[in-house]
Specification:
Helices cover about 15% and strands about 20% of the residues. The chain has about 150 residues and is α+β, with helices and mostly antiparallel strands. The chain has a domain at about 50-145: PriA, 3(prime) DNA-binding domain (GIY-YIG endonuclease, 3-Layer(aba) Sandwich). Strands 2-1-4-3-5 form a five-stranded antiparallel sheet, with no helix packed on it. The chain starts with about 45 loop residues before the first strand and ends in a 6-residue tail after the last helix. The model has no long low-confidence stretch (mean pLDDT about 85).
Length: about 150
């Protein structure tokens, strides 16, 4: 197309180059060994916690793996009550066990906080609640909600 022909309706006219380029807003790469703001590091021992979330949906009646932050390493013990981010919301849950690795192959989220450092779900109560949920067609979180009193601060 020559310059004497009019431009088609779907073609945009060429813009002249701007005299001054806009400053780049790209972030600088972090220094080696530096942590990003708000970054957490996993616990040194048994960094993966298997959590039962307090969600009354039958298709979510299983444990979910979360990373234990280093600052919660001592208090996130099996049986304690925790808060985790699940589907964009903070929900309550219980630590069932801690382990070295996860079967989930993607990046794990961190626990948000431990709401009660005292274990409120001993293994015997967990086994009993699981048996009741399986026998009577409920979910583990429904049975746990009835078996363990709510936390009052």
């Amino acid at each position: 197309m020559s310059s004497s022909e009019p431009a088609a309706l779907w073609e945009l006219p060429e813009k002249p180059p701007s005299p001054k380029a806009a400053p780049s807003r790209a972030r600088k790469p972090p220094k080696p060994g530096a942590k990003a703001k708000g970054a957490q590091s996993p616990a040194p021992e048994r960094p993966v916690a298997r959590i039962v979330v307090d969600i009354p949906l039958a298709h979510l009646d299983r444990t979910f793996d979360y990373l234990v932050p280093e600052k919660l390493h001592e208090t996130a013990v099996p049986g304690c009550r925790v808060r985790v981010r699940f589907a964009g919301q903070l929900v309550d849950g219980y630590v069932i066990e801690r382990g070295e690795s996860s079967e989930y192959d993607r990046k794990l989220a961190f626990l948000d906080r431990v709401t009660s450092a005292e274990p409120v779900l001993p293994p015997s109560l967990h086994a009993l609640c699981r048996a009741v949920a399986d026998r009577y067609g409920g979910t583990l979180s429904d049975v746990l909600r009835l078996a363990i009193p709510p936390r009052h601060a």
